[in-house]
């Protein structure tokens, strides 16, 4: 059996470059405007559109279009942003779930990444505009992602966009939502996800919402000392009765790390930076995924911070390459391990 944890190849010179970039990136993040420094959702959203929030200035794909999916958890619709590969026969659908601590971010924020993945994998990339906290506490975001996945598995989705769902993936909070969506498809919708999905791609996710010690002690490595970014996001995202109860937060409905039925799940490639406080979440989640009898790998990128997939760092291209390799291997039936 191949080892679950794989360290990406990185020589001493490149490691020094990555560590320098990580330090510079984290220093810059200390001076970015965070959601809790704004007076309203509208103010932060405008800053985000201008590239003055936590994320870089977005570049919107002119060919992206939106479809609306009815919610099964309320009277709202769930918007899905669709990016199709140009001039190629698509091979399936990849549902991408953006990060942002369940509080910030949007479906359109990472069009460049989704366009790159669409062209290199021949998949239709669909980004879900899930509801954000604190206006909509968890599990609102997870409910919207579940609705998106169920729809993308339907004949109606095949008729509208040409294919049905094969992959789910996301970064940070989106990785958490990727895992939770996969589990809820199995448990609530009685879908055999081990065969219905070709694979999942959770990248540097949080899987224990009570925050493992490495997250609490390593908060400076997400560039936010002394603001306790992880605690702030959880306080904003979780219902008050859950946030105030350690026993409640550690239930599997909130923290998938403590789900003790992980059998029958699709192959997974996890990714995390060695400088990310969430590294323990990812090591444990990937190990449990494989120990339950599923195919899994975790690629650890030396010298790399949280968020590397959606910023321009030395590691970014390599990490995207690894996702593409996983997807192509799963589409052709080859081993990715």
TrEMBL record:
<dbReference type="InterPro" id="IPR050300">
    <property type="entry name" value="GDXG_lipolytic_enzyme"/>
</dbReference>
<dbReference type="InterPro" id="IPR029058">
    <property type="entry name" value="AB_hydrolase_fold"/>
</dbReference>
<dbReference type="InterPro" id="IPR013094">
    <property type="entry name" value="AB_hydrolase_3"/>
</dbReference>
<dbReference type="Pfam" id="PF07859">
    <property type="entry name" value="Abhydrolase_3"/>
</dbReference>
<dbReference type="GO" id="GO:0016787">
    <property type="term" value="F:hydrolase activity"/>
</dbReference>
<protein>
    <recommendedName>
        <fullName>Alpha/beta hydrolase fold-3 domain-containing protein</fullName>
    </recommendedName>
</protein>
<feature type="domain" description="Alpha/beta hydrolase fold-3">
    <location>
        <begin position="95"/>
        <end position="309"/>
    </location>
</feature>
<keyword id="KW-0378">Hydrolase</keyword>
């Amino acid at each position: 059996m191949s080892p679950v944890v794989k360290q990406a190849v990185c020589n001493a010179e490149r490691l020094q470059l990555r560590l320098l970039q990580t330090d510079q990136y984290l220093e810059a993040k200390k001076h970015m405007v965070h959601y809790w420094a704004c007076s309203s959702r509208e103010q932060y959203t405008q800053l985000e559109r201008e590239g003055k929030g936590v994320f870089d200035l977005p570049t919107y794909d002119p060919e992206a279009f939106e479809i609306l999916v009815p919610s099964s958890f309320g009277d709202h619709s769930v918007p899905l942003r669709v990016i199709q590969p140009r001039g190629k026969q698509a091979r399936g659908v990849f549902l991408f779930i953006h990060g942002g601590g369940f509080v910030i971010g949007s479906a359109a924020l990472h069009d460049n990444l989704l366009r790159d993945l669409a062209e290199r994998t021949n998949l239709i990339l669909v980004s879900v505009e899930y509801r954000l906290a604190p206006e909509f506490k968890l599990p609102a975001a997870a409910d919207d992602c579940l609705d998106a996945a169920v729809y993308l598995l339907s004949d109606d989705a095949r008729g509208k966009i040409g294919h049905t769902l094969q992959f789910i993936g996301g970064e940070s909070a989106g990785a958490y939502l990727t895992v939770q969506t996969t589990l809820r498809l199995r448990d609530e919708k009685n879908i055999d996800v081990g065969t219905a999905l070709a694979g999942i791609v959770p990248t540097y996710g949080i899987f224990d919402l009570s925050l493992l010690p490495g997250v609490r002690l390593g908060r400076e490595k997400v560039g936010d000392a002394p603001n306790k970014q992880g605690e702030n996001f959880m306080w904003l995202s979780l219902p008050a009765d859950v946030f105030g109860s350690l026993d409640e937060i550690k239930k599997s409905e909130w923290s998938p790390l403590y789900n003790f039925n992980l059998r029958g799940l699709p192959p997974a490639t996890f990714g995390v930076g060695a400088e990310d406080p969430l590294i323990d979440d990812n090591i444990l989640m990937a190990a449990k995924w494989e120990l339950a009898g599923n195919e899994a790998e975790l690629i650890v990128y030396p010298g790399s911070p949280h968020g590397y997939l959606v910023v321009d760092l030395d590691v970014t291209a390599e990490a995207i390459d690894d996702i593409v390799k996983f997807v192509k291997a799963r589409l052709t039936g080859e081993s990715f391990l």
